[in-house]
Write a structure and sequence with these properties.
Elements lengths: L21 E5 L4 H12 L3 E6 L2 H11 L3 E5 L8 H12 L4 E4 L14 H29 L2 E6 L12 H21 L4 E8 L5 H8 L2 H9 L9 H12 L10 E4 L8
Parallel strand pairs: 1-2, 1-4, 2-3, 4-5, 5-6, 6-7
Helix pairs in contact: 1-8, 3-4, 4-5
Protein name: SDR family oxidoreductase
Organism: Pelagicoccus mobilis
Family: Belongs to the short-chain dehydrogenases/reductases (SDR) family.
Length: about 260
């Protein structure tokens, strides 16, 4: 049995604080990833945003200000994962929390989805995350402290048409969470997943503008009868990374307004 001294709060009033933590967020330059970075930053963490688009990363860190930085990296270039991990440790000395948020989406009928398209979704959402975890987790194990988060989806919990590859990739996250948590938790590294419901983002707003009937259908089956905000996901990530969740591992945390249990 281990006692993670670094995660123990000084007082009960700061149990949700991430002060002193180094949080690495993939896909952190926009959307939900940016919101997670923002909430973790507000909770006191030093956040490091990872992504392919330097312009988006630079803008996001400029908005965050102090205690934020970025590294340009394409997680599908799995052969460079070790190099990225070494850079993170060299720059910050440790990684307390890794958020596997980077991902791509494909909306297409299942029988029209090509093998190449399927592979592309898996490379980013699954294989890229695995490579980064394999590179970073050993340093967490050595310190006997760390948190790994996946950003999954409602598509991993129930059937949604025309997202076969995406659903398969996000469902894979849940298997990864369960296996990784059984292997890593004895070493002080917790592994959890957040499954966002329908969140009001720039991407979803554009999609709903062209399909108002879909928006109404989503709201009709969501008990809270509204879309979530990116910060709803961000604050869930703060909780799972904090000392408040020190006995939480292997979980899938829906942030969905009740959609996963709605009728």
């Amino acid at each position: 049995m281990y006692i993670d001294e670094q995660s123990k709060p000084e007082t009960s009033t700061n149990v949700f604080s991430l002060s002193g933590q180094i949080a690495v967020i993939t896909g952190g330059g926009s959307g939900i990833g940016q919101a997670i970075a923002g909430c973790m930053h507000k909770a006191g963490a030093q956040v490091v945003l990872i992504g392919r688009r330097e312009d988006a990363l630079a803008k996001a860190t400029e908005e965050l200000g102090d205690r934020s930085s970025y590294l340009v990296h394409d997680i599908t270039e799995t052969q460079k994962s070790e190099q990225l991990a070494e850079r993170l440790i060299a720059d910050w000395g440790k990684v307390d929390c890794l958020v596997n948020n980077a991902g791509i989406h494909l909306k297409k009928p299942a029988l029209d989805t090509s093998v190449d398209e399927f592979n592309s979704i898996l490379e980013t959402n699954v294989l890229g995350a695995h490579a980064l975890i394999s590179a970073i987790a050993p340093s967490m194990i050595k310190r006997k402290s760390g948190s790994i988060l996946f950003v999954s989806s409602m598509a991993s919990l129930f059937g949604i048409p025309q997202v076969l590859a995406y659903s398969a990739a996000k469902s894979a996250h849940l298997g990864m969470v369960r296996t990784l948590s059984t292997e890593l938790s004895p070493h002080g590294v917790r592994v959890n997943s957040i499954a966002p419901g329908w969140i009001e983002t720039e991407m979803s707003s554009k999609a709903f503008a062209n399909d108002p009937a879909r928006r109404e259908k989503i709201l009709s089956r969501t008990p809270m009868q509204k879309l979530g905000s990116p910060d709803d996901v961000g604050w869930a990530a703060v909780y799972l990374a904090s000392a408040a969740a020190s006995f939480v591992t292997g979980t899938v945390f829906p942030v969905d307004g009740g959609a996963s249990i709605g009728f």
